[in-house]
Every structure is written in C-alpha cells, then in structure tokens.
Amino acid sequence: MAKQWLREIRLKVGSNSQEIDVSQMRIKFVVRHWELQTPAHSDIIIYNLSDETANRIKKEFTTVSLEAGYRENFGLIFRGEVKQIRKGRENPVDTYLAILAANADRAYNYAVVNKTLAAGHTFRDQVETCIQAMKPYGVQVGHIADLGSQKMPRAASLFGMARDVLRRVCFATNMSWSIQNDRLQIVPNREAAPGEAIVLNSRTGMIGLPVQTIDGILVRCLLNPQIVPGKRVKIDQASVQEARFNPSFTAEVHNAMIPSTADDGLYKVLAVDHIGDTRGQPWYSDLTCIRADGQGPLPLGLAQRGIALDPEQS
Hints:
By secondary structure, the protein is an alpha+beta fold.
C-alpha cells in the first residue's frame, strides 16, 4: 500500500512548441470526470503570477496538464485544451489566473466521420471508424468492451459527428462511452472496466463514511489519481450509511430508484471529482458509485445526465 503523505503536484501550461511549469505557485483545482458522453473539465486557479507570465499564458498557451497525488501515488488527473483564461484579484494583495479547460474538447467538437461500411460490418467496425476520426485530435484507444458479434445485414453510411455515431452504438449495446485523459473507453452500463479493485477504508485513505443517496453511493478519499470512471472500488459494506426512505405517498418512485448497496462491497465508479489546494486543506477525490455487479436500479439523476437505463432493469 502506497503511503499517502507528502503531497505532490505538477502543473504545466503550454502549446505545441513550448510549455512552462508553474507547480511552485499556490494552485487550487477542481477536476471533474464522468462516465458521460461529454468532455471532462477542470477549473484551475494559479495565484500571484507575475504580470509577464500571466499575460504570456493568456495570450500564447492552449493546453494544460495537471498531475497530482502523493509521493508514492502520483499521476495524471487531467490533460486538456484551454477554453478560457481570466485574470482577477481575490483581495488587495493576492492576484490569480483562472483556467477553464476541457479534455478532448476538439475531438468532441470537430471529429467527423465520412465512410460507408459494407454489409456484414459490426458495431466494433463503427467504433474503429470513430477512433480514426478522433486520432488527429490526440485521442487514443482505451478499454473497449466486447460489443458483440452481430453483423449488420445492410451497408451503413456513417456521416456526421463521431460522437453521434458512438452515442448510437452505445445506446444499441447498452453501454456508455467517455474520454478519460485522452483515452476513449466504452464500458457496459452495468459492468466495471477490467482490473483490480482499489480498496477504500480508513487505512487506505477513505475520509468519513460512504453515504447511500438517490444519486448513488457517495465516497470521499484522499486524492488518488488511479481512480477513474469505470474503475472498481471495494468498500466495507458495514461502513455504508443507508439512505432514509421518504414516507410520503408520492415518494414511492423516488424510494424505488435509490441504488442498492453491494453485499461484497464492490462498486463501479461513475464519476470522480479531484479537489485540491496546495496551500489549504482540500486534497480529496469525491466518488459517485453503483454496484459493480449491475444489480439494483441505476440512479435516476445519473440517467438524466446521459447514462442510459438498462431496459431490462428499468
């Protein structure tokens, strides 16, 4: 088990030809990753840069890379394209430079497919076409689940945004696609990505107690760059604080949609927020999870935000 002390951070802002490292400044950040069909994004605030450096970042640089964690558990938590940079003053003494960035934003907005697939092609062939369209924008292949062996009886003309083709494929196969740190992944709605589960308890960095809510099982732990959407985590079932049902007559549907807890303690991460302040208390990862075995209802709130309900379970 890695020791979780001595915080580490590396923040680089740059362009295709050059970059600067501002890791020694005070930095606050919130990085949000979801298993959703929209880009992850980050809000990063850098304090008390010189006017020359702040103006250079604002005028010249278009990409940002953020690594964080602890000395023995340190890794990339965000890489993306800058969408907005603004300067401000928090008080009469401290100035800041705020960066809003999105991961794979250009791939999401500009990757276009224009290809005809012959009769007998599969869903995987359609996904491969989308991957080729996204590669020029820096997207690589991550975990792609088994999409089945069904062969299409007719040819298909794929024309339009790659994201729309991926959305149709995932709807047809009951999966969700997302781009996590420039890697396209497709994971079944009711299964986790392969790999060993990360154990979360008081000895490995869990903070407080997990809570069962209408949005899923909410867990907070010390910042862990290994936790990404689709990953499995293992939580002691006895530590999960169960939700209270609403006793009103009209709340029956609400109560029925509360995700159930897992007897074996294995959960799938649907969303993770990394929150940090190099001169303050926050250095956390906030997780939203559901059962890894696919049993029980999918949180309605998450379904409304883009994750399809399993028709067999809804």
